[in-house]
Design brief:
The complex is a heterodimer of chains A (324) and B (346). Chain A has twelve helices and 14 strands. With 324 residues, chain A is an alpha/beta fold. Chain A starts with a strand and ends with a helix. In chain B, helix 6 links the parallel strand 2 and strand 3. Classes of the chains: A alpha/beta (324), B alpha/beta (346).
């Protein structure tokens, strides 16, 4: 079994960046003495001290606001939202402040906001959301969403080294379920590069974060039925590597777009529009989306299961598209 | 009956002990306060001539507060002025020509036409511009001060709010963060009696906003915001407290918004008597009379300064008028740091 979990990969990446660069600083609620609600920063305060692993008062808006100030004055802050859901409290700071400072004033704002996101853990409406869609719509914010442990480490490093505000959507369901053998030594995954996780010729499954794994599982099911699915993992949502997506669609002529964020007005709708504008002549079937319901995230297991995308739902959509 | 040409009575700056304020500093106060006033009036004229793009939010009669506070900072300190704080930008030596170019949406403004009015920054001068959402800059300032500490430098940060902005959640958040972290952060409340049309009795119930400092365990002070000497002295105390490691200060400067929220607002909701009362406290007339009385200035100096200020403003306006409008396609550029200039404070 591969050795490093997704959550440990984030931790390692973060720790290595803090060792490499003394301007990298963490801040958030309960991240210091307690080591974070999910223990991503466990042991950090002992190694780096309380000033660089800052336990803050409870106010997400000011945590992000402070991070902006730290970034303006020469640091590379990594702010933790205890749960991605709470980032709504910092919406103004991100959308109107962090995202506009370079455009308006030419300030670089090298900061990362870590967002433990996603459902499947029975967290209910306020501990399970995928809020990336809100920010995907806004200028000036990069968004990454790793699906593997390797990427979790490589992208947290890439995000920290980036000179823009970056939202790091780390999926809670993947924390301890996804593992990789991660090579020794320093590496960073550059932002803005999608990856074909599984080559195929019949249908493209485009996703990120949790739905990449679901898509790979769906591809296995589909393979047994003679449908050869290609799985594209976006890895970065902003800036998006549409070239890889379009190239895949031009090859397979069919596409299912997946995400765990809600369906209406979501990232999938944008990808669908890009495909329509750039590759409509290559399409042999309608573009289909598999996403969460347009409801709050329900709590009870059968409700949540119904709400979320799954390998089976992706396989169903892929069959429909393949046989269209 | 008083004729319209008669000068209103002026309530003199009292002869109190303002600490050791050098002649050079007093002259700086006078220069920037008069410059701010001159620019406010010129901007209103330009607005009437349709040369100002968008709205104009005058800082008229706030000059003693904006200049008196900003002048007390050192070069390594960071200023985050709000939309009425033209005087603070000037005291920080933001070039006049940039301010006029910005108001006209010209390419030579520091935002290259990307933002308007006093939403102005200057990385070289350690100025961060604001966003329109009042309160958003408070925690940013706290973060800048905190970064300074980690980088081994005492960086005093100062930002502003009106009385209305004290109702925003980030007022509480940032003062609390600053208190807990014990950073040298100064929050200046320009209490100008009205938040757009809302009077203070509909905004808060405490007697003095400065009293709220006690709730955060920090220093709080209320000062006559139209007395430049008092404002400067109080800000310097706050800066010194910060440098000594004694944390943040909530500094409430009592002033009056003598014009509307913006030039298009006739402000009929402001009682006439209140305006009459505050006319006697005009910050420009008061500092001038004070410095004349103290023989820091002579009447001849005042004349010379008037000519000098008008010349400087004329030159800046000319620069801005001659500056081209930005290329339309510039709208699509500059969101990302990769596109440059990717600057930082220092």
């Amino acid at each position: 079994m591969p050795t490093t979990t997704y959550i440990d990969a984030i931790s390692e990446g973060l720790r290595e960046e803090m060792r490499r660069d003394s301007t990298v600083v963490c801040l958030g609620e309960d991240i210091g003495v307690y080591g974070g609600a999910f223990k991503v920063t466990d042991g950090f305060i002992e190694e780096f001290g309380a000033a660089r692993v800052l336990d803050t008062p409870l106010a997400e808006s000011s945590i992000v606001g402070m991070a902006i100030g730290m970034a303006l004055r020469g640091l590379r802050p990594v702010a933790e939202m205890q749960f991605a859901d709470f980032i709504s409290m910092a919406f103004n700071q991100l959308v109107n402040n962090a995202g506009t400072l370079h455009y308006r004033f030419g300030f670089k704002v090298p900061m990362v906001v870590r967002c433990p996101s996603g459902g499947g853990i029975h967290g209910g409406p306020f501990h399970s959301t995928n809020p990336e869609g809100f920010f995907f719509h806004s200028p000036g914010l990069k968004i990454v969403a790793p699906s593997t442990a390797y990427d979790a480490k490589g992208l947290i490093k890439g995000a920290i080294r980036d000179d823009n505000p970056v939202l790091f959507m780390e999926h809670k369901f993947l924390y301890r379920r996804v593992r990789d053998d991660i090579p020794e030594g320093d590496f960073a995954v550059p932002l803005g590069q999608a990856l074909v996780r599984r080559p195929g010729k019949d249908v493209t499954l485009v996703g990120y974060g949790s739905t990449t794994g679901m898509s790979l599982e769906a591809a296995k099911i589909l393979a047994e039925e003679g449908i050869d699915a290609e799985v594209v993992d976006l890895r970065t949502l902003v800036p998006m590597d549409l070239e890889t997506v379009i190239a895949s669609v031009k090859k397979t002529n069919r596409v299912v777009i997946t995400h765990e964020d809600r369906r209406r007005g979501g990232i999938g709708a944008e990808i669908s529009a890009e495909i329509s504008e750039n590759a409509v002549d290559y399409l042999d079937a309608p573009v289909v989306r598999v996403a969460a319901l347009d409801t709050p995230v329900p709590f009870s297991p059968p409700l949540e299961e119904y709400f979320l995308p799954s390998a089976a739902k992706i396989a169903t959509a892929a069959r429909r598209v393949a046989r269209y | 009956m008083a004729s319209t040409t008669e000068k209103p009575p002026i309530l003199d700056i009292p002869d109190e002990d303002y600490g050791d304020i050098s002649t050079a500093t007093m002259l700086d106060l006078y220069y920037y306060i008069r410059l701010a006033r001159e620019m406010e009036l010129r901007l209103i004229n330009l607005f009437k001539q349709n040369k100002v793009v968008g709205g104009l939010y005058p800082g008229y009669a706030h000059e003693a507060t904006t200049v008196g506070t900003a002048l007390a900072l050192g070069d390594d300190d960071v200023l985050l002025p709000l939309h009425r704080d033209l005087g603070a930008q000037l005291a920080r030596r933001q070039p006049l020509k940039y301010i006029f170019a910005q108001y006209m949406g010209k390419v030579d403004s520091p935002t290259r036409g990307k933002d308007g009015n006093v939403h102005l920054a200057n990385p070289e001068l350690n100025i961060v511009g604001c966003i329109s959402h009042i309160g958003a800059m408070f925690p940013v300032a706290v973060g800048i001060s905190y970064a300074g500490r980690l980088l081994g430098k005492t960086v005093v940060t100062m930002t502003y709010t009106g009385d209305g902005g004290t109702s925003i959640g980030e007022f509480h958040e940032a003062l609390n963060f600053a208190a807990v972290l014990n950073v040298p952060f100064i929050l200046v409340v320009e209490n100008n009696q009205f938040a757009y049309s809302t009077p203070t009795n509909q905004q808060y119930k405490v007697k003095r906003i400065a009293d709220r400092a006690a709730a955060y365990g920090i220093a709080g002070e209320q000062v006559d915001g139209n007395n430049a000497m008092a404002v400067y002295a109080a800000t310097r105390r706050a800066v010194e407290r910060g440098r000594r490691g004694e944390g943040p200060t909530l500094l409430e400067c009592m002033t009056m918004r003598m014009m509307g929220h913006s030039v298009h607002d006739p402000a009929g909701y402001v009682p006439r008597e209140l305006l009459e009362e505050w006319k006697a406290k005009d910050p420009v007339a008061r500092i001038e009379r004070y410095l004349l009385r103290k023989r820091v200035l002579t009447p001849a100096d005042v004349k010379d300064w008037t000519a000098r200020l008008q010349r400087e403003v004329d030159e800046a306006v000319e620069f801005a008028e001659n500056s081209p409008l930005p290329q339309a396609e510039d709208a699509a550029r500059g969101v990302w740091a990769e596109e440059g200039p990717a600057k930082s404070l220092h």
